[in-house]
């Protein structure tokens, strides 16, 4: 009943762990049944190992969390060597989230992923915490078009492009990515945001700005999912402040085939199991046989 | 297999020890080693994140945490009354390695006293405590049951010796266990004492279980997570960023 299909890849349910909030699943294994959740989007991977950002990395705000992790990761090749087999033990579908600073790095990463049996690549052109590249690719349509097209030529896997809410125009951005060959879109990444330490009279984060996630962004993320659903005809994976099953249903009704849960994992490690159960109860109560009946219904 | 999760603990006591310092005791059978911590939340939805608190003491049917009110979360926690429930997840991280038959110094700065009672109780050694405070001490009577000597320092000289604990520690110990603000730990490290040292670090963290990478610090072994590889690190390996 809960199964969803994204471009031929069948997920047991529509609830996926969002990149950067779930590592490679290892840390969550004592807390969550990794056979129960629909999928895991890996920690953002880059061709070269990244140590991430210096200074404060986490700051809590009203209804939100700001982070400036800076894509700390062991590199695509180390992930394949050390973590992929662990992830493959479970029923959760693996999505390889690929980030980078330069187009060439993305392409080299894709070549490595291409040799694995991972079925979906989530192209992260929207990380706000990487100085060069990252979000820069996800703000202007022509730059996004260019990188998606180049990646498309390199891979036969399902290509999901993760959009930034900081895009100049989210609808045009979605159209550009689909025209460039994206099979699916996921949105939204974190919002570029600012917090100030009033005693030090300085920004909290060394990079000045950082990415805002959590319930604070949900209504805006939801609006963007609807806008994108109105203009493109590819499966959308919606995210942004999903804290419970009701939030997940809202994202599905706004046009999401599946959803990703991020910040909520930090607050309750097994929250995704609750969300899955809640969606199922809702479907039974509302006599919904398949989630496609309510996807984009508003 | 049964998965871990947050569990409820009923408050037996939540008392103010000093200006902004509180000691909360929860009823229940909990696990943990000295230096390990729990993620604690005493509220429903907001603040979003739980707060990491190290184990102050742990007995058969009781766990306690010493904490300082610094923001909204700890403020809410301090207002909870006996009988109320808090949600806790743990024990998390790696605690202090326990040594035997060594000359040991415990060094704390302010709320860095938090992991020291349980540690002192578990150590079967001659233990001196160097406890630094801003202006006055707290819980020293309780600590005196488990340590041999106590050196109290205050920044303003109001009580004990004036200055910082690092001004008074002698180079005669085999092992030093320390917890306090980064500048204190950095000063301690710079003393280059011959003792083997273990530092319990504090960091802003979101998940507490090693996934968010929010609490990363620099060490000679590369980037490490305070919540997962720590919070206790070999003192020789920590590279302090004293700004943060």
TrEMBL record, chain A:
The keyword Oxidoreductase is annotated on this UniProt entry: yes
UniProt entry tagged with the keyword Oxidoreductase: yes
Highest taxon, organism lineage: Bacteria
E.C. no: 1.3.1.14
Top class in the EC scheme: oxidoreductase
Keyword annotations of the record: Oxidoreductase
Full protein name: Dihydroorotate dehydrogenase
UniProtKB/TrEMBL annotation, chain B:
Entry superkingdom: Bacteria
Protein name: Dihydroorotate dehydrogenase electron transfer subunit
Organism, as annotated: Miniphocaeibacter halophilus
